[in-house]
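Subject: Protein record for review, amino acid sequence with backbone structure tokens
Why sent: The fold of this protein is of interest and is recorded here as tokens.
Notation: Tokens come from a learned vocabulary of local backbone shapes, not from coordinates.
Attached in line: The record itself begins immediately under this heading.
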Amino acid sequence: MNTREIKIKITEFSELSELTKDDQKLLQMAADSASQSYAPYSEFHVGAAVLLENGEIICGSNQENAAYPAGLCAERVALFYANSKFPGIAVKSLAISAHADHFVMNKPISPCGTCRQVIAETESRQKNKIKILMRGESGPVNMTEGIENLLPLTFYEEKLKKK
């Protein structure tokens, strides 16, 4: 029997001013997008902003549905729209922000498991890591370079290939 230890690296910024102006702008756009969400059931509003290699920024917000599985998270809305509008253009950064109707979200929000898998697929397809910025409506910002820090033991498409 062998035991392996998996380490992840996340950088925490206590203040927005510690980030670059571009990262601050991307997080602000994510926060603005959260206010456009449709979240009458969870009352939890998430926004995402994607910076592409060509400088374009694509935003998305969570979109719920009474049939819960039919909704989409902000991260997937933004990533899928970016890929459909700018196919072949790599994603450099993804910023995520959230607020709730009945409490203050003062800790960074991280992507759900399904969104983590979509980010992994995006990185695999473009062969580049994505900088991921995560924040609540206030408080610190967490940043990581690459999805493997949020999704160790990632499931990649080569595991589906037939011989």
User: Anything to note?
Assistant: The mean pLDDT is 94. The chain has one domain: 11-156. The CA atoms of residues 46 and 80 lie 16 Å apart. The beta strands are 11-13, 44-52, 57-61, 91-100, 131-135, 141-145.
